[in-house]
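Quick illustration, no need to memorize.
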Amino acid sequence: MKRIIIKVSLIFFLLNFLFYRPVLANSNFSTDYDVTYTVLDNATTHINFDIVLTNQTTQYYASSYNIQVGIEDLENVRASDPDGPIVPVVTKDNDGANIELTFNRKVVGINNKLNFNLSFDTKTVAKSLGKIWEVNIPGLANQDSFQSFNVHVRVPSALGKPSYIKPEIAQSSKNSLSFTKEQLGSSGIYIGFGDFQIYKFNLTYHLNNPNLFKVRTEIAIPPSTGYQDIEIEDINPKPLNVTIDKDGNWLAQYLLTPYQKIDVVVKGKAKINLSPKKETITNEKINLYLKEQPYWQTSNVDIKNLANTLKTPYAIYEYIVKNLKYDFSRVTEGKGRLGSVNVLKDPNSAVCLEFTDLFIALARAAGIPAREVDGFAYTERSKERPLSLVKDILHAWPEYYDFERESWIMVDPTWGNTTKGLDYFRELDFDHFAFVIKGENSQYPIPAGGYKLEGQEVLKDLDVSFSDGFGGTRSQLAIEENFSKSYIAGLPIQENITIKNIGKNISEPQTITVTSSFLNPNPEKFFLDPIPPFGSSALKVSFQATPILTNKVDTVTIALADETFSKNLKIYPIFLHKWILIGGGILIAILSIILPVLTFKTRNLPFFRQKG
């Protein structure tokens, strides 16, 4: 019987994301893979392929195997079959490297098998990034092309338990995980190790007043949220104040003189956590996050009908991931924002804004509070985890309110789509760093990176990188008061207290207590909302009028957390006021001069007796 030599080829790509994909879908051979990824302490990954090639015919046999590896940093490439070593022929090309293996033994005869091995080292799979490690395992482009495909991941025990595994698996040991081809899927595996991530940032905002008069303006600086804690190390020039809006954004306020231009530089650090903090929202907030906004057309018939069908956040997420298509051309062309209705009509032309807008519109129409998050997202694979806002390097993703968890939950349907199904719903990652939250308004505030003036499009206004230290200092509140030293009895006392946050972190909600010896009300308590760094809050202290003859010195004490401030206030009758005393003295002096003169003149006046 004539036997035909078949050169069996298999290709897998690691361009921006790994895929295993057969070049020739040949039903004459079946392949079984057992792949082990051993991550070393230096982030190098040793990849070992144990492959079984089974001949399913009597007419064909395989003499060689060809593998395309889409990376260039291959080291220590080795191969063998049962008859000894195989010399790999590695050829670099535009896609990375091609590895050709010529077998020592031919796979001849039906059901005959050839076990062979390929291994190499790479620094592409595992990354040590700041405070965390990430491991990315390739997905399968066509599962049916493999009889079996099992993956084992070994990591250093020092990394501890994974923070997240995408997709979830039922069982795993501390430093060893195993996956089947069904679990691997087309999206692959994404594993994170670490408790939190820390970024340092240097952001530039360009402000301009083209008017003939002064104007007030504000910039949005990164805020603390349910997922992140922020330290603001410096804002230059200093703002008038930093306030918090309904969505929790930190807004730094400035007053610009006519024709003034300034560049504001904000420096700080962000600590990104995997799980959100609890946050109770009021009915007022719930209604706020269900309202229709531009780009979130909740009253549209198609949006309402689809929302009534989907109903849950997960169903909405899944629908968007499966039905929208990311349009990379829009990123470079800078086309305008479509909004939920338009992307529903044209699902093949979406970027992260449309994924976000459609999620929010459907969620709100289904009675689920939702809002938009704009910010920085770390990525090294722009095809699988793209950044779509062309103002610097920004990204957009939605969050919804989970009433059971009492938390805002961030999800990323864009990356769920572009990674071909990685789960960005149940748990996010350490890569999303929020700059602003848009819930009350779908177009405001503007995140850092969006404050460019004409001609500044090429400027890099965002500098974000990994860092180590965080939390060296806590919030520090300073008390400023404008009490006078003395007050007139019989009149109420009203003065302002200003509380300034001179620390790096946002302050906690707390109570300020004002006490005195005899002034009322006593004590007087105020609830102080959180104050962001470089921010301040003014409180009006009022005491009732004292009796008009009060002549005492009272000590007013202001207590704030562990800090106290005391000041003596003199309360006295109005007739003891210095100006009253001075005026009275002057009046007495004048009278002491005038009265004798009048008396002398009176004595010298002629008197006439009236005749009877």
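Confidence is low (pLDDT under 50) at residues 1-25, 607-612.
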